Amino acid sequence: MLTPKDKKLILEVCTRVTPVAERIGADALNRLFVVFPGAKTYFSHLDISAGSAHLRSHGGKIVLAIAEAAQDIGKLNETLGPLQTLHAYQLRIDPGKFKLFSHCMLIALACYLLDEFTEEAHAAMDKYLSAFTAVLAEKYR
Amino acid sequence: MVEWSDFERTTISNIFASLDYKDVGPKALSRCLIVYPWTQRYFASFGNLYNAEAIKTNPNVAAHGVKVLHGLDQAVKNMDNIKATYAELSVKHSEQLHVDPDNFRLLADCLSITIAAKMGSNFTPAVQAAWQKFLAVVVSALSKQYH
């Protein structure tokens, strides 16, 4: 359950990372592939080596989608409609991977924001990412 | 038996060698209690845990955080036999403390994030992988004696 304070913190974090979306996104994805190598199986068609253009552009896309949806969290279902369809029918990424990516995203945020990634901000982002990924997986079945 | 590469052994010892227990311990435990509030169920005797501020400044939480972090020292010293090292502690968590072993993973994740926030870019993906592997082995060992 996201409180008004949570939503404020989420917006603050998302505003901070929007200008560096590619950097954070690439870092989160890179961590995912190194720590949980099973995730690499979904990217055999891309060059996902550290620092690659694909990693940066793909990572950036993901972070920007997360940041954009944070502008109106009450409308997640609406905002994520097209992404829901994409993931359910085309990408078909096992939803367990969303949890692993969320964890790597939190680590990337911690490494970037350092002390600014307070306990409260961490809690708010963790809750937001759980809600986001739950909505993302809704059309799977 | 768990196989450790030289990189993994070095990474783990380096992290612990420069670890500020009095800072990281309390931070990791209070982060766990704040981010996963249901974990507070095990700390009813700790006093005021009503909000994040109270948890962050609670001396019982701080002391316990240091204790838990030092609990990892045994694993660092016995990396080739973590399972046996924690057999007794596992029994204790199961029979005496009645802690759901899923909580070990939650605390481990909070510890990783605390360390990441301290090390910044030095917490590289490779370091993260080694660190998480170490914690996963510890968590598995602590969960082993539950029946």
Q: What does it look like?
A:
The complex is a heterodimer of chains A (141) and B (147). Chain A is mainly alpha-helical. Chain A is built from seven helices and no strands. Chain A has helices at 4-17, 21-35, 53-69, 76-79, 81-91, 96-113, 119-136. Chain B has helices at residues 6-17, 21-35, 52-57, 59-71, 73-77, 82-85, 87-96, 102-119, 125-143. The two termini of chain B are 21 Å apart. Chain B is an all-alpha fold and 147 residues long. The interface between A and B is medium-sized, with 22 and 23 residues.
In short:
With 141 residues, chain A is an all-alpha fold. Chain A has 7 helices and no strands.
Comma- or semicolon-separated keywords:
heterodimer, A: 141 residues, mainly alpha, globular, B: 147 residues, 0% strand
Q: Report the count of strand segments of chain A.
A: 0
Helix content class of chain B: 55-70%
Mean pLDDT across every amino acid position of chain A = 95
Instruction: Give a quick account of the main beta sheet of chain B: strands, pairing sense, barrel closure.
Output: none
Largest sheet of chain A: none
* Helical percentage of chain A: 55-70%
Could you outline the blueprint of secondary structure elements for this entry?
The complex is a heterodimer of chains A (141) and B (147).
Chain A: H1 4-17, H2 21-35, H3 53-69, H4 76-79, H5 81-91, H6 96-113, H7 119-136
Chain B: H1 6-17, H2 21-35, H3 52-57, H4 59-71, H5 73-77, H6 82-85, H7 87-96, H8 102-119, H9 125-143
Helix pairs in contact in B: 1-9, 2-4, 2-8, 8-9
